[in-house]
Amino acid sequence: MAFPVIGAPDAGDTAWLLTASALVLLMTPGLAFFYGGMVRGKNVLNMIMMSISAMGLVTILWCLYGFSVAFGEDKGNFFGDPLQYFGLKGVFGGQYLATTDPATPAGIPLAGTIPLSVFVAFQLMFAIITVALISGAVADRLKFGSWLVFAGIWATIVYFPVAHWVFAFDGITAENGGWIATNLKAIDFAGGTAVHINAGAAGLVLCLILGKRKGWPKSPFRPHNLPFVMLGAGLLWFGWYGFNAGSAVGSNGIAGATFLTTTIATAAAMLAWLLVEKIRDGHPTSLGAASGIVAGLVAITPACSSVNVVGALAIGVVSGALCALAVGLKFRFGFDDSLDVVGVHLVGGLVGTLMVGLVATAEAPAAVEGLFYGGGVEQLKLQAVGAFTVLAYSLVVTAVIAYAIKFTIGLRASEESEAAGLDESEHAETAYDFAAVGGTARSLVKEA
């Protein structure tokens, strides 16, 4: 089927995808609170700004050429034609509303049953949050200007092509889509590879090249605001229904099934993380609950259309437990992944993508059988090829980008800036202006 076609959109599908797009956009402010609460108070605004700035920067790049690179006509199974939809050419136009004259029905560019413009907006939200995810690995020490340069280049030559590999497929986008979806036929329903493995690998490389925070790991670097973290996790869980169920690209049974498997896996992952904490540390924590929620959401993302309730439970339990253990690897191997992007997103993305090859079942919408349901190892092999190819590509290209910036404009803030806090040094602001209340509690009592 040609892309796009001209016709009348389905009202129900369009309404759901508009809602899903807004839900996915909400995930980025949710991520900002999640990350912002985990850093020290002197860096919270900088952390939030890294997520919010991605909303502005990636939107412009996506509308100029990003959508075209991701969903334009395939060029060598690597990227889409960057000129096909440049400036969103061809996305608007046509007869938007049906008239009383049968000869002039509504006729606008469509992606499947929804307006192409809605599909552009939906996929834009994926691009935004993928870039924002990386920032958690480099908290407390990356110059804001360097972050913007990195984010723009990384989105252009890493995310946009990888999105083409994973999301551009026959029948909804281009007749010849990206190789992971069209040729390999690995299953990644909503972005386990393109979003989470991709961002997690980038975060690993960037934190290695940037170096450790001063005092890490001996200094505690405790979260300054755990209610922020819990609020962010709640917003992420809420918005993730747009992420996963919205990827059905319609208001249909697939959306319903993925909504349910997303909920089940997330609940199981949270409980599994808390159990690991209880056994290992003696007490479950609110930070652990929030992290377990995100780990489960990450892991079920590629698999939500291919598993049943049992499979969703298995993915949730495995991802919650493994991610809880994986966040400690940074201490063992000495890489300062500030907010556990590697332990949650890279590991969680790998768990979910690979477990499709184990627990996928023909009764789920994707109708694929994994090893445990009699399908053999073939699907597991396909999943591994897709996952590790994205991982390798992101590792290598991110390293090139990061070193290029390091040896030109520089990546890391000065020691003085880090000591003062990036809120003041980078943005000339503070999140908490205690001086505004008129002094200390003791002085206020004396004055009274």
Helix-strand pattern, N to C? EHHEEEEHHHHHHHHHHHHHH
Residues in β-strands, percent:
under 5%
Any idea what the radius of gyration is?
Answer: 22 Å
Major sheet: arrangement of strands: 1-4-5
Helix content: 55-70%
Number of strands: 5
Global mean pLDDT = 93
Largest sheet: 3 strands, antiparallel
- What's the total helix number? 16
The CA-CA distance between the termini, in Å, is 77 Å
Uncertain stretches: 441-448
Question: Could you name the key traits of this structure?
Answer:
about 450 residues, globular, about 60% helix, three-stranded antiparallel β-sheet, mainly alpha, two-stranded antiparallel ribbon
How would you sum up this structure in a few lines?
By secondary structure, this protein is mostly helical. Helix content is 62%, strand content 3%.
SSE topology sketch:
Layout: E1 5-7, H1 11-38, H2 44-71, E2 74-75, E3 79-80, E4 108-111, E5 114-115, H3 116-134, H4 144-167, H5 179-184, H6 192-210, H7 226-244, H8 253-281, H9 286-300, H10 309-326, H11 329-333, H12 341-359, H13 378-406, H14 415-420, H15 422-427, H16 441-447
Antiparallel strand pairs: 1-4, 2-3, 4-5
Describe the protein in words.
The structure is a single chain. The chain is mostly helical and 448 residues long. The chain is built from 16 helices and 5 strands. The strands form 2 sheets. The chain has a 3-stranded antiparallel β-sheet. A two-stranded antiparallel sheet has the order 2-3. β2 and β3 form a beta hairpin. α6 runs parallel beside α13 and α8 runs antiparallel to α9. The C terminus is likely disordered.
